[in-house]
Structures are given as structure tokens and as C-alpha cells.
Design goal:
The complex is a heterodimer of chains A (342) and B (334). Chain A is an all-alpha fold. Helices cover 71% and strands 2% of the residues of chain A. In chain A, helix 6 (114-141) packs antiparallel against helix 7 (147-166). The mean pLDDT of chain A is 86. Helix content of chain B is 71%, strand content 0%. Classes of the chains: A mainly alpha (342), B mainly alpha (334).
């Protein structure tokens, strides 16, 4: 974060105070604003006690390290907004990174030209991710099986299939230029670029496009949406396919992060992704929430993890903090709704 | 047709057809056919010794599946059972090794911890009206975090010999007898089965799952019932933790990871509707047996360890499809 010195002149202090109050009220009225506020307060309080927390290296890490989770949370948010859930994300990521890595190594060994090898290995997880998303979506939308059951089944099948085929091997000797997530574009790490660009595109699409609005309508009240002429099945299908695409991008970032790939499903990944969505303000009942919130939430989780290191708290408490975070978010949401209902 | 009428055994021909097409009977047929097919792949499979051993291995899932059936019948879910099992295992090991409690006391404290964890779930769900999915998702992370935080990911070993009695020995010590924990599973299954099918409390759970508002208006203490089943779920997870630690001789903070998936899969395969309102303990039991034996049979036929989860996933989706098909034919809720 670039340091922008704020020097309030004493003569304007009164009007400035009202402005600040208005800004604060504006921020706290939305989940995104609260998250932003919490991130800023956290950074300043930990930063003052340990300035190294605000060093460029650490900040780059805070914004880049959880980018793959933020990307997957974009898709998850769409699915949850549509009134469904996907708990197969972790297993799917495991399958896709293995696929991408093996494709890269295999095609390079067959003597394909390098740029082509890499492009195929990068695009394959996106395509397969969308395909698996389409299968999930078909079962949920057309065969009317609850999403939690379908994706639980998918989780088991993908996890088992991965072990059967890959057996938890590590993939080495990735071709040159494959590890795109290690690069920087315009001085920004590639994962961060992906996170920001995809969040902006998805946020605009969900807010302003007809299909994006329809996802909210279906999640809010499927019957009303259907009666007002929305093809609810097609919308749910779309949400799952886009989720598959995002899981594909997430896998791409994860696979190209290091110089080797562990061919297993990263444990608990779906939990991180669902946490990001829920803490970001996506209601698990469907119909509300934004991807900006989920991205801010994934940054917050990483910022907390990093802050814990700097104030000497054992990282083994991270998951407890994460659980408490979900609880606090949900409680705050319940209280806010009660106040509004009054 | 009201709920009560629907669930009471019907002696008419229509009832017989319904029974033939019921989830339990179809599952039983699938199980038997599967077993016969698998027994041709390995002669070690259909032996008393192997089957009893599978009962030992499946005990923890079976115990937790009982309260899970009740919870899913009310239209709820409990994702935190695996994490409760983890935190109970850690509390057991930690309070014995680090706090110096006698081991008997540590076992009790562990089970109390589980009960408390379940009570917290239930209290938040009932008092604040949180959706069970989100509440138990939060505690899924929170309880696992407690387990990791308390133990700092260190394992506890070196339990005395008598401690392994529950997990590794047979009833009354026979060499080829029934595993101790299987006895507990059978007793618990019968008790919960009777409570669900034959008591006001059990009928109330179905009523809550079918129409919670209606159940409230007809005077069923919905909040109390929900509190009881989530607390019971915590207690059973604690019991499962004790049995599991006793079976594998060591305590680690990642114990019970993925337990919730196995349990939910078994309950749903057993015909309990994920929307609530229907399901039986017998169905869950058959679901458990089906999963455990399919996994074991495939492992004996040469499949690599966790690859057998493919079959769990496939059977799960297949069972739901069949269930949907039946309900559409018999005119039940889709």
C-alpha cells in the first residue's frame, strides 16, 4: 500500500469530523465497508507495533498469497448467491492441478513447441473445470438433487479418482515458462492481477448483466424468479459452470505457483473458499452478497494469519480464529437484520 | 395424507408395493448383490473374521450416524462432528498427559467436551435461528482450530494397556468374538431406532422436518428437541473419539477429518431425505454396512486405499436418483 500522508488542517477539523463520520457510517452499513475497515485497522495496529508487517515484502505476500482462494471464492459466491453450495472445490482443484502438471510434462516430453505446451496446460484446467461444473449444475438444476449431496458425491468421486490415477505423486520437471504464478505483470504478482481483474469483471457482471441479476433473483426466491420469466434451471447451470471456470483459474494459479506440483487435493480448501464467501457477506440462504466482499474477506484471512506471526501467536490457532470469524460475521448479520426488522 | 398416517405401516396392497420400492429394500438388494459380486474377487472377504473386523473399523461412523439421522430428519445438518471428534481426542490426551488427570477422568472429560460442543451448536441454532449449515460450518473450523491450538499439533501416545480394551479387544475377550465397540454400536442403534420410531419425541422430529411452523403450532417443543439432538450429536462424537483413540492407540489433532462426509453419505444413502421429514435408523444402518463393505471389498480386490471413495460418491448419487424416482412414482414429496 502506498503511504498517503493525511495532514488535516486544524481550521477544517469540524467539517472534517462530520465528513469522517459520514464516511464511517457509509463504510459500516455494508459488509464490504466493514471488511475494508477491519483490514485497515488491523494493518495499522499490527504495523505500529511491528513496522515490518507493513514492509513491501509482507504486503505483497498478504495480497498475493490468498489470491487463488479469492478467485475460487468468486465462483463459490455465485453458487451460494444462487441458493446452492459446492463442497467439491478442494477435490476438483486436486484433479485440475494434477491434470495441468501432467499435461505440461507429458506434452513437453512429446516434443511439442514450448509456448503451445504451456498454453494447453493452462487452458485445460479451465475447460475441465467448466465441464465438471456443468455436471454438478445438471444434477442440481435438472435432476433436482440438493447441491450439498451432488457435490458431496462429486467430492468423493474426484478424490478417489485422483488417488487411483495419480497416487499422490509429485510432478517435477515442469517446462520452462510454465510457472506463470511466479511472474509479475507491471510490477504486480500475477495472482494478484488475476484476483483484482476477475473480481472487478465478476462484480460488474453480477450487478449489471441480466444473467447476473437473475442469479440473485433465483437465490432470493426461485419460485418468484420462475414466475417472472427467468429460466431458473439455466441460471443455476450458469452459476455452476462459472464456478467450475473459477476453480479452473484457481487451480492454474496453484499449479504454477512452485516448481513442482503435489498431485493431491489441498486439504480443507473448500472450507477456506466458503469462509471467504460467507465472511464476505454472501448469505448461505442465497440471494445476497457480492464478490468484492468475498475477495476482501480472503485478503483479511491472510492478513490475520500474517499478523498472528508478527505478534507471536502460534499459527496452529489460525483455524480457530477463522471459525470465530465466521461466527462473528454471521452473528453480526443476524443482529443487523433484527435491527432492520424492528 | 397426514404424516402420521403416512409413516404408519399400511397393510394394504398399495402398502406392500410401497414397501417393495422403499429405499431400505432396494438398498438391501444392492448390498446383497454387491457383496456376492465382491466375494468372487477375494476369498478373504466373506469370512466371519473379516466382517467382524469391518464392524470394528466402521464403529465411529456408525455411532455418529445415529444423531446425524435424527438431525437430517428435522431438516438440519451437522458438519462439525469430525471436528468435535478431533477436539475430544485432543482433550482426552491432553488432560491425561499434560494436566495429570487419571485416564478414566480424562475419558469422561472428553465426552463432556463433546456434549458441550454439541450444546453450543444447538444453542446458537435454536436461540439465534442460525441455519444449521452455517453454524456447524463455523464450528467445523472453530473446533478443529481448538484441537490444533490446544495440542499445537503434537500427538499423545503411551496409553496404558487397559485403555485399548474398548478399541482393540473383543467382547469378554474371545479370540474370534465380537469387537467391544460393535456391541456399543448395536445397543445404541436399537435404542435410537426405538426412540425415533416409537416415541412422541421421535414422531416430533419427523413433524419438525415436514413443517417446522406447523410443529410449533401443534405444541411440539421444537427448540428443546433441536437442542437435544445437536447435543446428542456432540456426545456421540465424543464417544466416537474415545473409541477411535483406543483403537489406533494415539491422539492427533487431525482425527476425524472427513468424518462428517462419511456420516452424511451413509445417512443419505440410507434413504433419509436431505430436506427433512423422512428417514429411518434401519436405512442408515444398511447404508453404513453398504459403504463399509463396498470399501473393504474393493480394497481386498486390489484398489488403493482412499480410491474406494469413488464408490461412495457413485452410490450416493445413484441412491438419491433412485429415491427421487421412487418418490415421484409413489407420489411423495420430490
Amino acid at each position: 500500500m502506498a503511504a498517503t500522508p493525511i495532514t488535516p488542517s486544524t481550521t477544517q477539523s469540524e467539517s472534517l469530523a462530520t465528513v469522517w463520520r459520514r464516511v464511517l457510517r457509509g463504510l459500516t452499513s455494508s459488509q464490504e465497508g466493514i471488511l475494508l475497515l477491519v483490514i485497515i485497522v488491523l494493518m495499522f495496529s499490527v504495523g505500529t507495533s511491528n513496522p515490518r508487517f507493513l514492509s513491501q515484502n509482507n504486503l505483497t505476500d498478504v495480497f498475493a498469497a490468498n489470491a487463488y482462494i479469492a478467485v475460487a471464492a468468486i465462483g463459490m459466491s455465485m453458487v451460494i448467491v444462487s441458493g446452492n453450495i459446492d463442497i467439491s472445490v478442494g477435490s476438483l482443484v486436486g484433479v485440475l492441478i494434477t491434470l495441468s502438471g501432467n499435461l505440461a510434462v507429458g506434452l513437453a516430453a512429446m516434443g511439442w513447441p514450448l509456448p503451445l505446451v504451456n498454453i494447453v496446460a493452462w487452458v485445460a484446467p479451465l475447460v475441465v473445470g467448466m465441464f465438471v461444473g456443468a455436471i454438478n449444475g445438471f444434477f442440481v438444476a435438472y435432476l433436482r438433487i440438493p447441491a450439498i449431496v451432488v457435490t458431496l458425491g462429486m467430492l468423493s468421486i474426484l478424490k478417489g479418482g485422483l488417488i487411483l490415477v495419480a497416487g499422490g505423486n509429485t510432478i517435477y520437471n515442469l517446462p520452462a515458462g510454465y510457472t506463470i504464478a511466479q511472474d509479475s505483470w507491471f510490477g504486480i504478482p500475477v495472482p494478484t492481477v488475476f484476483m483484482i481483474v476477475l473480481t472487478i469483471i465478476a462484480a460488474i457482471w453480477m450487478r449489471y448483466s441480466a444473467t447476473g441479476r437473475a442469479i440473485y433473483a433465483v437465490g432470493g426466491n426461485a419460485e418468484a424468479a420462475r414466475l417472472s420469466g427467468i429460466n431458473t434451471r439455466r441460471i443455476i447451470m450458469t452459476a455452476f459452470i462459472l464456478n467450475g471456470l473459477m476453480v479452473g483459474v484457481c487451480s492454474l494459479l496453484l499449479a504454477t505457483q512452485f516448481n513442482q506440483i503435489q498431485a493431491t487435493a489441498p486439504s480443507g480448501l473448500e472450507l477456506f473458499v466458503i469462509t471467504a464467501s460467507v465472511v464476505g457477506g454472501v448469505s448461505i440462504l442465497g440471494g445476497t452478497g457480492t464478490v468484492v466482499g468475498s475477495t476482501l474477506a480472503s485478503i483479511l484471512v491472510k492478513a490475520i494469519a500474517s499478523a498472528m506471526l508478527f505478534i507471536n501467536v502460534s499459527p496452529y490457532w489460525l483455524k480457530a480464529v477463522q471459525g470465530a470469524l465466521i461466527l462473528i460475521t454471521v452473528l453480526a448479520d443476524v443482529l443487523r437484520r433484527r435491527r432492520q426488522a424492528r | 395424507m397426514t404424516t402420521l398416517e403416512k409413516t404408519q405401516t399400511n397393510q394394504t396392497l398399495d402398502g406392500l408395493r410401497k414397501w417393495l420400492f422403499s429405499q431400505e429394500v432396494i438398498l438391501l438388494i444392492i448390498t446383497v448383490v454387491g457383496l456376492l459380486l465382491l466375494s468372487t474377487r477375494s476369498d478373504k472377504f466373506l469370512t466371519v473374521e473379516n466382517l467382524l473386523n469391518q464392524g470394528r473399523l466402521g464403529a465411529e461412523v456408525a455411532l455418529v450416524a445415529l444423531p446425524m439421522t435424527l438431525i437430517i430428519i428435522t431438516g438440519g445438518i451437522d458438519l462439525s462432528v469430525g471436528s468435535i471428534m478431533g477436539v475430544c481426542a485432543i482433550v482426552l490426551g491432553y488432560s491425561w498427559k499434560n494436566l495429570g488427570l487419571p485416564l478414566e477422568g480424562a475419558i469422561v472429560v472428553a465426552m463432556l467436551t463433546g456434549t458441550l460442543c454439541g450444546l453450543v451448536n444447538g444453542a446458537f441454532i435454536v436461540r439465534l435461528g442460525l441455519p444449521p449449515l452455517i453454524m456447524t460450518l463455523a464450528t467445523f473450523a472453530f473446533y478443529r482450530g481448538l484441537a490444533e491450538g490446544i495440542s499445537q499439533a503434537r500427538s499423545v501416545r503411551g496409553y496404558p494397556d487397559w485403555f485399548f480394551e474398548m478399541g482393540q479387544k473383543n467382547f469378554q475377550g474371545y479370540a474370534n468374538g465380537v469387537p467391544n465397540q460393535l456391541i456399543i454400536v448395536v445397543i445404541a442403534t436399537i435404542i435410537v431406532g426405538i426412540i425415533l420410531a416409537r416415541t412422541t419425541f421421535g414422531r416430533g422430529l419427523y413433524a419438525i422436518g415436514n413443517n417446522e411452523t406447523g410443529a410449533r403450532f401443534s405444541g411440539i417443543p421444537v427448540n428443546l428437541y433441536k437442542l437435544i439432538i445437536y447435543t446428542f450429536s456432540g456426545f456421540m462424537s465424543g464417544l466416537a473419539a474415545y473409541i477411535y483413540v483406543s483403537r489406533v492407540s494415539t491422539t492427533r489433532s487431525d482425527m476425524g477429518t472427513g468424518l462428517e462426509l462419511d456420516v452424511i453419505a451413509a445417512v443419505v444413502i440410507g434413504g433419509t431425505s436431505i430436506f427433512g421429514g423422512s428417514g429411518t435408523i434401519i436405512g442408515t444402518t444398511i447404508g453404513l454396512i453398504l459403504i463399509q463393505l463396498l470399501k473393504n471389498g474393493l480394497a481386498l480386490a486390489g484398489w488403493k486405499g482412499d480410491a474406494t471413495t469413488i464408490i461412495v460418491g457413485a452410490v450416493l448419487i445413484f441412491a438419491i436418483l433412485v429415491n427421487n424416482f421412487i418418490q415421484r412414482r409413489t407420489g411423495g414429496r420430490a
